[in-house]
Amino acid sequence: MTAMQLLMKKRNEAINRILGKGYLATKRVYVGNATCEIAAGSDEVMEVFRNAIQRGLTNVYLSSKGCAGRCNLEPTIEVIEEGKIPVKYGRITKEMAHEIVERHLKKGEVIEEWVIEG
Amino acid sequence: MYKEYSIIICSGTSCQKGVPGELTEIARQVLLKHGLDQKTKISLSGCLGMCSKGPVMIINPGYTIYGKVDAGNIGKIIENHIVHKKEVTEHVIHEDHLFNRFYSIFGDMDFFGKQMRIALRNCGIIDPDDIDDYLSVRGYEALARVLTDYTPAQVIEQVKLSGLRGRGGAGFPTGIKWELTAREKEPVKYVICNADEGDPGAFMDRSAVEGDPHTIIEGMIIGGYAVGAKNGIVYIRAEYPLAIKRLERAIASARKEGLLGDNILDTQFCFDIEIRLGAGAFVCGEETALIQSIEGFRGMPRPRPPYPSVKGLFGKPTLINNVETWANIPVIILDGAEWFSSIGTEKSKGTKVFALAGSIKNTGLIEVPMGTTLREIIFDVGGGIPEGRKFKAVQTGGPSGGCLVESDLDTRIDYESLAAAGSMMGSGGMIVLDEGACMVNIARYFLEFAQNESCGKCTPCREGTKRMLEILTRITEGNGMDGDIEKLERLGRMIQKASLCGLGQSAPNPVLSTIAKFRSEYEEHVIDRKCRAAVCTRMLTYEINGKCVGCTACVKVCPTRAVSGVKMNVHVIDQSKCIKCGACYEVCKFKAISKQ
Hints:
Largest interface: A-B, 43 and 65 residues
CATH topology of chain A: Glutaredoxin
Strand content of chain A: 15-25%
Helix content of chain A: 40-55%
Number of domains of chain B: 5
CATH topology of the largest domain in chain B: Rossmann fold
Number of helices of chain A: 4
Number of domains of chain A: 1
Radius of gyration of chain A: 16 Å
Structural class of chain B: alpha/beta
Largest sheet of chain A: 4 strands, mixed
Strand content of chain B: 5-15%
Shape of chain A: globular
CATH class of the largest domain in chain B: Alpha Beta
Order of helices and strands of chain A: HEHHEEEH
Helix content of chain B: 25-40%
Oligomer: heterodimer
Shape of chain B: globular
Structural class of chain A: alpha+beta
CATH superfamily of chain A: Glutaredoxin
CATH architecture of the largest domain in chain B: 3-Layer(aba) Sandwich
Distance between the termini of chain A: 48 Å
CATH superfamily of the largest domain in chain B: NADH-ubiquinone oxidoreductase 51kDa subunit
Number of helices of chain B: 23
Number of strands of chain A: 4
């Protein structure tokens, strides 16, 4: 096997592992998790989503992400759904995260006023 | 408002060679006709890097890329795609690039409009703690390609062809550095990643390592293969604990996957990486000082030559590149050196990451193609100055750089143009200043930093910056003397000429560039004892104006009892007792204290 073939094998295995973690869920939630995001409070926000999933929220794939560079809007999260424009929320507190769970993740409502403009 | 569709039209020069704004206008008309204008966001993107197939347009959701879009067909493509839900297959571009994937998620945001993400391509997109995420976005494919198809000499050829230059600040051609290290015959060589980021306000390297550590690892392994080294070292400062943790985890999982260590991907090639922590001295970002620090000595620069490529770490040939430089390598291999060299200006290729800070609406970490103007960065990406204040200057290059003014705003970002305009690229700090900033004070701030961080090895830097700081401090305190400005200039030029390392040579830059561009402000400080921005507090006079309601808040807070007055009566400040601490100004709720 060449190095390239071996890598392709590894990539396929990696993709399968990601799929196994539920990547194809209806919604994927990415929570910023760099030093700057954490300083702005993203740990607490992550915790809200993690707890919601533990308490039975289904069809949501939760992942952390690095910093996309929006310093003044942190913590940022994205809710990504196949076939829809990803929803980008900024300056999310843990209370807001609770509401995102209830309204957006459970009922599919985009909470307009928290969506990042521009 | 949240929109259902997003149309992104490339605003790169070759894609916009038709009538300016024509494509956007036609798109708007078509959407209006179908009542979709409220549901769709039209935005412009920076160069999408597919110039030969331009003009290029992306439609989201779905990240469909259309090429050869023109005034004649754009309406039909949009109609078919959005209204009839049918892709116009003959215009679809099926290219899988490493860069620009963020457009599938962030494409409708104006903040990303002028950006092009090569080094930061995965930051904010993937989970940095999971090697699977990196592998799934073609991670380590560049390494596999190199090990399968390229000889070390061919890798170096590619890097040379790409025109990539060092992103740490000096801009030395990366390919030549690699070649110089490769041609040494020593059996033991080292590869180093310089992650000792120290400029005030700069956090490019931290974000890159925290957001996508595997990219740097992959770049370093390729570098090791090219120059014939087996040992890699990441020198990172200890005050980046999360970045270190991510890097450690990434190294461990890369080893586990057989991508690092002995017989990488079952080939004969062996390479491993270890992390060395820096204690946070600014000078250790200088390559020779960095090497001394790894060797266990006090971090101090030494004269070059011999360059590290000949005699570096432990006297062995050593290849040192900055974090951002390493992050570019996998893209150059997979998307091609020729493609990479098509981006940017004549002498500066690719993109540059900047940490945008200061008086600007969107502070953030951005990556733009070389050749983007400062105006585009500050007003398009950064969203301009907040609260209607006026732009005054932009500081680039940190403590080694200088300030640029309104008339410099059309300067295109590249190593040469920034230097010609009186500043420098540096590692990527960019601080925007509005009319409320005092240039003398800014210069003093940066010089104080350089002075504190001077390693003390050579006299011009150690003593010269100290004297300059004394003069500047005296000027900002209202004790400037005749001839002080000229003294600063003379000392500055002497330090530039006589210092050993780059840090010393560039330490006077913030002062010299502000004197060159804001001389009258310095003169006001020295001659009129006035600071027009009301920043240098020692020179201010605090007075109580007619808005005073007599609440006694300022009376209570004044540490020298300079404010007197009883309840309900206008208070008075005794100027002979006032130490200009500003406590009364801060505490007053009625804006009754004026300073000038």
